[in-house]
Amino acid sequence: IFFSCLLVFNTLPYFTFGRQYSFIQERILLFEIPFYVICFYTHIAAGSFCILSALLQFSAFILKKQRALHIWSGRIYVMVVLVVAAPTGMFMAFFAKGSNAERALFMLMALIWFYTTARGLQTVLEKKILAHKQWMLRSYSMAMTAVTFRIYHLLFYYLGWSHLENYEISLWISVVGNILMAEAIIYYKNNNYKQSFTT
């Protein structure tokens, strides 16, 4: 929760629409392209919303006591991911820093985010609640790469790694690590469910 809120807080200065920030300076030529600028600001706004709203989805208290809040925030999360966040992320992946491997990873991440969110929507409409929880956990793991990437990046910075090496390794560990973490949680919960059911 802390790092999610910190990430969102750190994105707020971008909405002064100044160009003095290092991320923008590294891509200053891209910011001469109006469509890229629109995608950038739309993506960070949508991503920030997804990270914060997803925190509501995994609250047992809200699910039990404020079910309407869970449903409506979930609907908005799904629409924002499918219509805005994942598509703009896919477009921006073509211009991401790093090698072709990193750009391909960004594209894959956007596709996984889109697919898992769509499956989360499909399963809840089919009233497959357990499957819905699992797919939304996978979706959230992709949203959280923005947070985990910065945690790894900060850690490796203090270890003295070079900027590009830090960027690439932090990105790969974040994406692959989040996928594995989501699957580990799903596996653990499934085992607990099976054990409680059999006993």
* Mean residue pLDDT: 88
Shape: globular
How far the N terminus sits from the C terminus, by CA atoms, comes to 35 Å
| Poorly predicted tracts of residues | none
Note the run of SSEs as H and E: HHHHHHHHH
Helix content: over 70%
The helix/strand class is mainly alpha
Describe the overall structure.
The protein is an all-alpha fold and 199 residues long. It has helices at 2-11, 22-26, 34-57, 60-65, 67-93, 100-125, 129-143, 145-158, 163-198. Helix 1 packs antiparallel against helix 3 (34-57) and helix 3 (34-57) packs antiparallel against helix 5 (67-93). The chain is globular and about 50 Å long. The mean pLDDT is 88.
Secondary structure topology:
Elements: H1 2-11, H2 22-26, H3 34-57, H4 60-65, H5 67-93, H6 100-125, H7 129-143, H8 145-158, H9 163-198
Helix pairs in contact: 1-3, 3-5, 5-6, 6-7, 7-9, 8-9
